[in-house]
Description:
Blueprint: H1 2-19, E1 22-23, E2 27-35, E3 41-52, E4 56-68, E5 71-78, E6 82-84, E7 86-94, E8 98-106, E9 114-122, E10 127-134, E11 138-142, E12 145-149, E13 153-160, E14 163-170, E15 180-187, E16 190-193, E17 197-200, E18 205-210, H2 213-221, E19 225-228, E20 259-261, E21 266-273, E22 284-288
Parallel strand pairs: 15-18, 17-22
Antiparallel strand pairs: 1-3, 2-3, 3-4, 4-5, 4-6, 7-8, 8-9, 9-10, 11-12, 12-13, 13-14, 15-16, 18-20, 19-21, 21-22
Amino acid sequence: MYVKMIVLFMFCLLTLNDLTAKSYSWKTEKKKIITFANGNQFQVDMMSKTIKDIEERKLFKLKVKALKNGKEERVIWESNKEEGWGYEGLYIISGDHSAAISGVFNLGGAHCPSNYFVLMLSSNGNIYETKNLNQYGFVEKKANELIINDLFQKIVFSKSGNNIVKKLYTRDQMGPSNAIPIYFSLSDENIIVKNPKMQCRVGQSIAFIPLDENTKKRFNSGEISITTDSWDDEQWDFDHSDWSDYSPSESETIHDGNSYTFEKTGTFHFLLCGDCSDIKYPSLTIQVK
């Protein structure tokens, strides 16, 4: 009896350990060193930590350390710990006196939305303009630009001479410069597209542009959503479906910016709406060749 109780106790203990979250040490996914014109050096670390409970999860954080003679002197800034799925990148653009930094990780799922830390670092070690963007979007790093594509705005850090300058674009300005403009406006809460039927080629982009200030204000704030069947295997059937009950799904929604680039041929539909009630027909139909 005594032996059986010991065995039962050990079994319960092992089971409890299996159910208890296991936390591992922080791991550096990527590190980069910034050297400014005044000689000051800083190291930026994008880090992750695995936690195992019922499912395996990861935490991410961004850390900035001051260096002296190439060795770590002190931590000057550390972000909050944020949960994610996978590391994506550490992007930096620097000038003589400042640097723009972004650490990116994704959340998994169908569209793999990204979270990203964004901050500015001065040559004296001051941290300012910090953001922790927990939403859809992505980061682009070009030769002299760091572009943060947020949900309803685009932040561009660029190198101008020896300085880093920042420019903000609203949602209606986020599309690529060569995109075909799709003009639309609000009329008694209905959204009217100027040319509701068009043709495009594979590789071309469209960008939705509001025609008046009221429409622009509501579009840039996110009150007007854009959904499309361009990602779907089967396109929407407006002739044989009851669209009065339609509500946009996450997988059909354009979450960042105002544009879409066609990657395949076919006939595709776009819906612009506020509360998306009483839908009878698509806002825009495009035939892609």
